[in-house]
């Protein structure tokens, strides 16, 4: 039990002993504290599972696990398991991957937002075009300026090799 959960139980017990809380409310809160893990407890449990996952062999060509892990069978994509952790850990899979204690949630959210600003692009010679998608927003952190008359104002013409 985390120290915060223990402190919460001590506080609710004291409030009950001092008759400052209704008995039914006391029971509901106490039952909730007994049943619900704190976020910190949950993250710690997930971090232990992540450490166990690190010992699971992965085929480097397919990126699939080669041994069963927590109900996933052989051949499941490592990325699928990462998504499972990402949905459950409060700081996401990036926190688990880097393991340095730095919360990168804001940075990842920013990258996801900027990626959404990337649009389909027909300017095959532009340096920001990557596989038919404009990546201007990832570099300059804003949408490219596109007009009806001139097209992309931010169009970056590449110079030839000659």
Short description:
The protein has 162 residues and is mainly alpha-helical. It has helices at residues 3-17, 23-35, 39-53, 78-88, 92-98, 105-117, 136-140; strands spanning 129-130, 133-134, 146-147, 151-152. The chain has a two-stranded antiparallel ribbon with strand order 1-2. The chain has a two-stranded antiparallel ribbon with strand order 3-4.
Give an overview of the whole structure.
With 162 residues, the chain is mainly α. The protein has a two-stranded antiparallel sheet. A two-stranded antiparallel sheet has the order 3-4. α1 packs antiparallel against α2. The N and C termini lie far apart (69 Å).
Secondary structure topology:
Blueprint: H1 3-17, H2 23-35, H3 39-53, H4 78-88, H5 92-98, H6 105-117, E1 129-130, E2 133-134, H7 136-140, E3 146-147, E4 151-152
Antiparallel strand pairs: 1-2, 3-4
Helix pairs in contact: 1-2
Keywords:
mainly alpha, two-stranded antiparallel ribbon, 7 helices, 49% helix, 5% strand
Strand content: under 5%
Inertia-based shape:
elongated
**SS-based class:** mainly alpha
Number of strands: 4
Helix content: 40-55%
> H/E element string?
HHHHHHEEHEE
Cα end-to-end separation = 69 Å
Biggest beta sheet summary: 2 strands, antiparallel
Strand order of the largest sheet: 1-2
Number of helices: 7
Unreliable stretches: none
Q: Overall mean pLDDT score?
A: 83
> Rounded to an integer, what's the Rg over CA atoms?
25 Å
């Amino acid at each position: 039990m985390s120290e915060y959960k223990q402190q919460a139980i001590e506080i609710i017990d004291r409030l009950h002993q001092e008759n400052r809380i209704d008995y039914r409310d006391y029971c509901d809160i106490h039952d909730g504290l007994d049943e619900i893990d704190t976020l910190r407890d949950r993250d710690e449990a997930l971090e232990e599972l992540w450490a166990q996952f690190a010992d699971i062999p992965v085929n480097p060509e397919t990126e699939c696990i080669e041994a069963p892990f927590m109900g996933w069978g052989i051949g499941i994509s490592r990325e699928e398991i990462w998504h499972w952790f990402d949905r459950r850990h409060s700081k996401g899979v990036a926190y688990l991957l880097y393991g340095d204690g730095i919360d990168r949630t804001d940075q990842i959210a920013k990258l996801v937002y900027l990626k959404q600003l990337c649009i389909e692009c027909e300017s095959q010679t532009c340096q920001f075009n990557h596989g038919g998608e404009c990546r201007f927003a990832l570099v300059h952190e804003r949408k490219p300026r596109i007009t009806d008359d001139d097209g992309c104002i931010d169009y970056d013409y590449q110079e030839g090799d000659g």
